[in-house]
Design goal:
The protein contains 8 helices and 10 strands. By secondary structure, the protein is of the alpha+beta class. The protein folds into 3 domains: 53 residues, no CATH class; 63 residues; 122 residues, Phosphorylase Kinase, domain 1 (2-Layer Sandwich). The strands form 2 sheets. Strands 2-3-4-5-9-8-7-6 form an 8-stranded antiparallel β-sheet. Helix 3 crosses helix 4, helix 4 crosses helix 6 and helix 5 packs antiparallel against helix 6. The longest helix is centred in the middle third of the chain and has 35 residues. The radius of gyration is 24 Å and the shape is globular. It starts with a helix and ends with a strand.
Length: 264
C-alpha cells in the first residue's frame, strides 16, 4: 500500500468502515511511513471535536461562551482571594494571563478545526473520486464509454472536452454523484501521471467560499486554487459549468490544463 492508497482510506479507517484486510495493511503502512502515521493521528484526534462543535454550532458562539465561563469563574475566585490573600493583585494578573492564554488556544483550535472540517466537506470527496477513478483507469481505455460520456457532458453542461490536452490523453469518462451533485468525470493520463476533470452544474454546485482569497487570473480566466498534500484542485467557472481539475501529481500545472470549451 502506498501513501495515496493510505490517504484515500484514512477517513474510512477513522470511521471504522475499512475491511479487516485494509485495516491491517493501513497499520503496516503507518508503521513504515511517519508522514501518514502523523496525518492519521492528527485527524483522528480532532474528528470528534469537528463533528460535535462545528456541524451544529458556530465556533464563535462556543468560544464566546467559553470565554464568558472562564471570566465568570475568575471573578468568583477573585472575590474569595481579595479577602484572604495579601498577594491578590499579583494572583489576579496571573489569572488573567492564564484566561487569555486559554482563549487564544481555543480560538486557534476552533479555526484549525473549522479549516479541517471545510477540507473534509468540500475537497476530500472530490479527491477520493479522483484517486478511485485513476485506479480504475490504469492500463485501460474504453472508447465507447468515453464517447457516450462526452455526448452526455455536451448535452448536460454545454461543454465540449478534448480527447487530448497537451501530452495527456483521455482514458475514461463517467457520471458520478459527489457530495449529492451529479457530475461528469473524465480522466487524462500521461506516463503514469493522471488528471481528473469534473464538470459540475452551476445551478446546484458552488465554488467553496474559502477559496475566494486564492483567486488568480491566468490567460484571461479566473481560477480558484486548493493545495493539500494528497491532491491539488483547481476550480474555474465557465458560461455553463464549474470545471474542477484534480491531480495528486504536484508537478502538473493545472492552471494550464484547459480541457475544452463551452458550446453555449
Amino acid at each position: 500500500m502506498n501513501c495515496q492508497d493510505a490517504l484515500s482510506l484514512l477517513y474510512d479507517l477513522i470511521d471504522k468502515e475499512t475491511s479487516e484486510i485494509d485495516t491491517k495493511e493501513l497499520q503496516e503502512h503507518f508503521n513504515k511511513c511517519r508522514h501518514c502515521f502523523e496525518r492519521h493521528r492528527l485527524e483522528a484526534s480532532v474528528q470528534d471535536f469537528i463533528n460535535e462543535k462545528l456541524r451544529a454550532q458556530e465556533p464563535e458562539y462556543n468560544l464566546e461562551r467559553l470565554k464568558g465561563n472562564i471570566l465568570s469563574q475568575l471573578d468568583e475566585v477573585d472575590a474569595e482571594d481579595a479577602c484572604n490573600d495579601n498577594n491578590f493583585p499579583y494572583r489576579r494578573a496571573i489569572n488573567w494571563v492564564v484566561a487569555v492564554a486559554v482563549v487564544v488556544v481555543m480560538i486557534g483550535v476552533g479555526y484549525f478545526g473549522l479549516a479541517l472540517y471545510q477540507h473534509q466537506a468540500n475537497y476530500i470527496p472530490i479527491e477520493r473520486a479522483h484517486w478511485a477513478a485513476v485506479d480504475r483507469a490504469v492500463g485501460s481505455v474504453d472508447s465507447t464509454t468515453i464517447e457516450v460520456s462526452l455526448a452526455d457532458a455536451r448535452k448536460q453542461f454545454g461543454y465540449d472536452l478534448s480527447h487530448q490536452v497537451g501530452d495527456y490523453s483521455m482514458t475514461s469518462g463517467m457520471s458520478e454523484k459527489i457530495m449529492g451533485v451529479d457530475m461528469a468525470h473524465f480522466v487524462y493520463t500521461n506516463n503514469g501521471s493522471s488528471v481528473s476533470v469534473f464538470l459540475a452544474p452551476i445551478d446546484n454546485y458552488a465554488i467553496p467560499s474559502d477559496l475566494e482569497i486564492t483567486m488568480v487570473e491566468h490567460n484571461g480566466r479566473k481560477y480558484f486554487d486548493h493545495h493539500c498534500e494528497g491532491c491539488r484542485l483547481v476550480f474555474h467557472l465557465t458560461e455553463s459549468a464549474i470545471i474542477i481539475t484534480a491531480s495528486a501529481d504536484h508537478d502538473v500545472e493545472l492552471l494550464d490544463f484547459v480541457p475544452g470549451h463551452s458550446t453555449i
